[in-house]
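Predict the structure of Solute carrier family 26 member 6 isoform X7.
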Amino acid sequence: MGLSEAPGQRDTQALLSTTQAMELRRRDYHVERPLLNQEQLEELGNRSSATGTLQWRTWFRCSHARARALLLQYFPVLAWLPQYPVRDWLLGDLLSGLSVAIMQLPQGLAYALLAGLPPVFGLYSSFYPVFIYFLFGTSRHISVGTFAVMSVMVGSVTESLAPDEAFLQASNSTVDVAARDAARVQVASTLSVLVGLFQVGLGLVHFGFVVTYLSEPLVRAYTTAASVQVFVSQLKYVFGLHLSSRSGPLSLIYTVLEVCWKLPQTVVGTMVTAVVAGVVLVLVKLFNDKLRRQLPMPLPGELLTLIGATGISYGVGLQHRFGVDVVGKIPAGLVPPVAPSPQLFARLVGNAFAIAVVGFAIAISLGKIFALRHGYRVDSNQELVALGLSNLIGGIFQCFPVSCSMSRSLVQESTGGNTQVAGAISSLFILIIIVKLGELFQDLPKAVLAAVIIVNLKGMLMQFTDICSLWKANRVDLLIWLVTFVATILLNLDLGLAVAVVFSLLLVVVRTQLPHYAVLGQVPDTDIYRDVAEYSEAREVPGVKVFRSSATMYFANAELYSDMLKQRCGVNVDHLISQKKKLLRKQELKLKRLQKENKLPKQAAASKGTSISINVNTSVTDIESNDVEGSKAKQVSAGTELEDTAARGQEDAKAPDMSSLKTLGLPQPDFHSLILDLSSLSFVDTVCLKSLKNVTKL
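Done. Here is the predicted structure for Solute carrier family 26 member 6 isoform X7.
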């Protein structure tokens, strides 16, 4: 073992000897450069102001090239579709589009129930927005359409503004389902229009950077909490229960308590149907994962489950014999466009903005992942416009707000999808189902759709493992994750998002107010400087103090910076400046009095504007000694004062500096230079400048 380590030790010793030799050569250097102010630097560097045309002036220029550029910017399909390689990409996009459509059919039906709407409106939301995104989107691989998080956010709004209790019939105290569904469709479509208006407006003003305030831990915690909301909302379909509509803070807790209270009323046929469907879906997914490399495309487990459950329900008569709730009538054909209700705008504006931001955050994060993987660029502002137009036009055709689905996007990429032609093909396939095949799913049990939703929550529920990874990596991010999750669970989705964003921004402010301050020392035989409190071998350069802060200095932490500078380096800036001003004032008064009494010529007095950068250690002992010296000075006779002043006047002719701390008799530290490491300074405000100016006045 010793023989094996010998070469490594020799290499290490040789490296250290080389490093030491370089260090010895570097010690005999001397760096000197003039101290320049801003005016001198601009003159030396020959700075000139930019004479280019202002950006806003180019917005109003009209030319053929600019018109073409704007057209291609807002209609990206005109840029890539004429250059589409049909032979290379069409087959892959065709197979990918069919695979996505097979997934989109059951998910559209299921997520419509999640939004509190009849299932057919999930099919509408899987057609119109997808085709609109094909025309305006810049991502080639994301699958736009219904998504669980968006659907549960819509469901919380529809159930709060159109609850079941508002549509009870006076005759038999039952819910008027037709009137309730019509009211909820109007709320959802109006909400979609508002979401689209927000997204288009933010995209046109290039406000795509707003999503940067949603950090990855925040988004993952929010989607995890939303998946818990989705899971709880589907329990009534799994057990066949009739629950009260709730919204607002603590609504999730009340819903869980009500489910537990009404468990004895469970419809056994409904629960068995949901369990069987869930087991089948899980087995098919495991089979697809095991044979992923052998299968050209994954088995459509959801579609097969829907077809099988519909056939069994129709043949056995699950609704009539076992009381299993089914989807019901699905109208064939498309619905005409309907104008949104302006009366609902004021009640929906807050939820619309939250849904717009969350939907865009999910879409752009997934789009950038695929763009980085395949080597193309996604325009965040154009993505806002594309999603906004999808929701805006979709809302006019009675769709609810949509975003992109992670599971469908992964299928679209893995099955050979290259462009949004795959999305257009999937939307056309959904159109065929809406027009001709939709009524075949009238006997589909709602419990099967609930099973589809719950099984698809696996990916988001697995994000609970973030707690362990963030505990090891960054506990501040873990705190953001936990606060976001708890706030979303307790306060519902809209208030939870607001609390999470505010908390994360406040945490950034707090971290800038509590930075790490350090006095740096040189690690032996290196040019590396580290905190002397953490590195025992680090040594300070004799006569030099290097002070560093890990955060930028601004108005919120400037006072703390000065306090820590005093504590770590012994430089009490405020006390020394006040002492210096007092001594300078005494000298001026003394000179005036002596000149008046003895008619001495006026000597060049130390002006208040003159400053020398000398740093001072102001320990308690130094302050006491300074006070003693001051008291002794008061006992000096007038004749001695005159002699001292005359001597100082003669010295002034040689050295005009009368404002240095040494000449003023203030205590001297054990170092001669103070270096402030300002590498973390990202911006400068007036408070920062004043704090730095006070240091230079010493």
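Residues 515-582+668-697 form a domain with the Transcription Regulator spoIIAA fold (CATH 3.30.750.24).
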